[in-house]
Amino acid sequence: MLTEQPFSGLVVLELASVLAGPSVGQFFAELGATVIKIENTGTRGDVTRQWKARTEDPETDISAYFSCANWGKRSVALDLKKPAALQILHKLVAQADIVVASYKPGDAEKLQVDYKTLSEINPKLLYGHITGYGPENPRAGYDAVIQAESGIMYLNGEPDGLPTKMPVAFVDLFAAHQLKEGLLTALYLREKTGKGQLVQISLLDAALTSLANQGTNYLVAGFEPERAGSEHPNIVPYGTIFTTSDQKQLILAIGDDRQFRNLCLILSAPEIAEDALFSKNSARVKNRLVLNQKLKMLIAGFTLEYLLTEFEKRFVPAGAVRSVSEALSGEAAKALQLRTEQAEKALSGLKTVAFRLSKVGNEVLLPPPHYAEHTREVLLEFAGMDHEGLQNLQAAGIIQ
Fold this sequence. Notes:
Radius of gyration: 25 Å
Number of helices: 20
CATH architecture of the largest domain: 3-Layer(aba) Sandwich
Largest sheet: 6 strands, parallel
CATH topology of the largest domain: Rossmann fold
Strand order of the largest sheet: 3-2-1-4-5-6
Number of strands: 11
Structural class: alpha/beta
CATH superfamily of the largest domain: Crotonobetainyl-coa:carnitine coa-transferase, domain 1
């Protein structure tokens, strides 16, 4: 059991907004790092502060969207176009271990917050940079557009329907995970060499590599993937949705022939598993339409509760199709919800779900910050400022 958080003492500067970069910052915060979120005074901070569901308070500067990726951070508001603010940032960089940035190529250089500039201040700095299309392409990257351009959107949806964007910005999340992997590798290497380095990932690269088996179906097997609803191109029945006698929806994920035989036994139709048309997965893939019709009729004769109970007994992979509210009411989801007494008071009961690698004590992790909430505190602690200096900067409009 850990007695100290693994990143305790690590300082991370977050020069990123929306979801990908902030998810990386929150990952380090959850595991003990001090994460300082630098927010733009021109936009009043991260744009997701204003991305609100219709049920949210229009006056608060902490939206549900913002809260999903900004726990554990301190917010500092700076206008980096002003030399005095840039000088402050450079002082923070001198104390930092990691910078997470999400500028379009060329923008970081204009602001003098690029890796080359900052590494001259701090040679041990690790700089994680997320772009849309790579360091040479100045085009801005947006999750929905990347989903379309990478083939992900083309594959998503029903066979006779339109391509469909996934309802979560998964490309941002793919990129965040890949950047975390890169930064952790760089952190390990720095322990050996004492040197910092630049780690880059693009949203497009993250999306393309996440095509996984769908990509290799084309590259290796010459098979052009098509929309198939929730069906799997290589396994049957896998991802298929059926309706039970009590009108509940059930999904099957049968990965091998043994599981298929057990499925047929539970459905009181063992002869289907002996039929040469269905006994092997390769045969089931060729005859999926006929098989799915048989399974549809059989499953319609049982209740959801009965089937899930029997499937669990015989190790048949299956699950109920649940709404988001149902899923988040489960014990597993409750264990992941970050909820602190501090947040209750400051944010009117705000809570969010975050995936944690270790159990972070609720009293340790800060709630999502209000805009500019920690500017003075951080500059006193990390930038060598005094109270008089802060008053002068605030009077000059350099900080908020």
